[in-house]
Give the backbone structure.
Amino acid sequence: MPKKSKELSALSVAKIKETGRYSVGGVDGLCLNIEGSSRVWILRAVVGKRLDKDGKLKPHRRDIGIGPYPEVSLAEARAKATELRLQIRNGIDPIAHKQVQLEKLHIQKLRDRSFRECAEVVIANKTRELKNQKHIGQWATTLETYIFPILGDRVISSITKVDIAKILEPIWTTKNETAKRLRGRLETIFDYAKAMEYFEGDNPAEWKGNLEPILGNLKQISRPHPSLPYDQVAEFVQHLRQKDGISPKALEFSILTACRSGEIFGAKWQEIDFESKVWIIPKERMKAEKEHRVPLSEPAIQLLKSIQVHTESQGYIFPAPRGGGMLSDMSLTALIKRMHEQKFKENGLGYIDPKQNRVVTTHGFRSTFRDWSADMTDYPREVCEHVLAHKLPDEVEAAYLRGAYLEKRKGLMIKWANFCQNNID
């Protein structure tokens, strides 16, 4: 039976100063190793077996570090050594076990991404994917407003559907459209986290069978964009031409072309064919993801020429006044609001959709055009729908008519431009 080391006291250990390895007793193999100014606890123990140079199995003696002295006291070193001895007795290699635990911790740290970190990656991806700058901005704005203050710094793997429901519940009835879009954005972020293995389990922002029982469905009342009656368009355009700046030009161009505001904001000079009087919008910027050819009436051409020398060097036809980037919907909304207030002082009415009693919007002028074309012209429905770049139900028909109706659309847009001017010029 091997000789037991004398069990040293804490005071005796403190007096050891010379370089060497000293058995301190209390636990077999526990030593204090001193090399210069370094003093470290070591457990000398047999951990399994190994092959020697002759290929024979022999006991595998290993030094297992326990920690520095005096940071780790004698009592703590004995307790830790006892724990390691128990692991060895149970067939566990303490060094290998510690390495596995460190690797697991490292992997876990890599996976412990915050919600904000995941959201920023998804927003960057959406910036490349989405065509409309407004929609890109809405992604960031809604998350900054409703999510980041509460969940932004939380590890995404710790977030539950209850957390999501608590955020959505206050705005579910008061701002339902915003809440629904926010939920969809959250679902996309958690899909990314699951794909990257930062999150395990069901998506907490999923609707069916998940948030639906908590939040419930609301009856949706669809309201079209407020539009101006077409018999007031000429008066509006005349008023609009009294305003200075790029925003009035952009709004008039959107009325004359019946295009979406996003298509107007992203318009570039290289897309304009002045010779053919056609604006060619690439499919990447179209809602239907198909190239759209917009016939330009003479008033639309003259409008472009009036600003070409001022904005051609900036790329965008209608650049933002500050910074030269894209205009925003807010700039046109503010313009219409100011015009409405000015007109309201004159006649007590302003520019109102009489069916909704709401101030008209930029998008509403597309509805104004559609009402006018149906009531005041004999052009077929398909021609009018192509002006608005609406997707026709029949794909083959749509592909054929996109080119076949260009000349007819030119005639329709000339009539519309004349109607908007109403002998103003």
Notes: Residues 176-195 form the longest helix (20 residues).
